[in-house]
Design brief:
By secondary structure, the chain is an alpha/beta fold. It has five helices and seven strands, in the order E-E-H-E-E-H-E-H-E-H-E-H. The chain has a single domain, classed as P-loop containing nucleotide triphosphate hydrolases (Rossmann fold), CATH 3.40.50.300. The chain is globular, with a radius of gyration of 16 Å.
């Protein structure tokens, strides 16, 4: 699949105000500073589609982008941003949870994790929440270009080993780099395959 058009539609903190279209939605979420905006811009061939900031936690709303006029890419706030006030974190968590609980158009969630780090409890807990609620998801390892060829597979193997302690089988996984565009074709092919299955 090639992305020909990617257009911003709406930002809001109220799930009821999300687009009413029946088009499939693919949500992107992860801890703050995981490289989500860079990945979205790389996937869509659009440098300024998702705002990149030097300050983690910049995305504070549900952002809908329509892709090729037939599916939505949804940029969700990062979770676990320590410097946000407690009230702000609670607000994020409330409308993120509402989005996952109520949004029937959601067909897949991409959980972004930084390939440079050990498995983080907050990521594992979030995936467990998705699994318990029957929300399909895939794991996207970001910033693969920051690691050498021997460290990257070790880190991912560690992640999979820890996940298999609680999961019977692993969700689909992708290894990406916004700098080298690694994983771009695989991710878009995966989205396309889901769209085809829904047609």
């Amino acid at each position: 699949m090639k992305i020909k058009t990617a257009k911003f539609v709406i930002s809001n903190a109220n799930v009821a105000k999300c687009p009413e279209d029946d088009l499939p939605e693919y949500a992107f979420i992860g801890r703050s500073n995981v490289g989500k905006s860079s990945l979205i811009n790389m996937l869509t061939n659009h440098k300024g589609l998702a705002k990149i900031s030097g300050k983690p936690g910049k995305t504070q709303l549900i952002n809908h982008f329509i892709i090729n006029d037939n599916w939505f890419l949804v940029d969700l706030p990062g979770y676990g941003y320590a410097k946000a006030s407690r009230n702000m974190r609670n607000t994020f968590q409330k409308f993120i949870k509402e989005y996952f609980d109520k949004r029937k158009q959601l067909v897949n969630t991409f959980v972004l994790v930084d390939s440079r780090h050990e498995p983080q409890k907050i990521d594992l807990d979030f995936m467990e929440y998705l699994g318990e609620n029957g929300i399909p998801f895939a794991v996207v390892f970001t910033k693969a270009d920051k690691l050498n060829q021997s460290t990257l597979p070790k880190n991912i193997a560690t992640y999979k080993r820890i996940m298999l302690q609680t999961w019977e089988e692993l969700p689909p996984t992708f290894i990406t780099s916004s700098t080298t565009q690694d994983g771009k074709d695989e991710l878009l092919k995966y989205i396309d395959s889901i769209n085809q299955s829904l047609a």
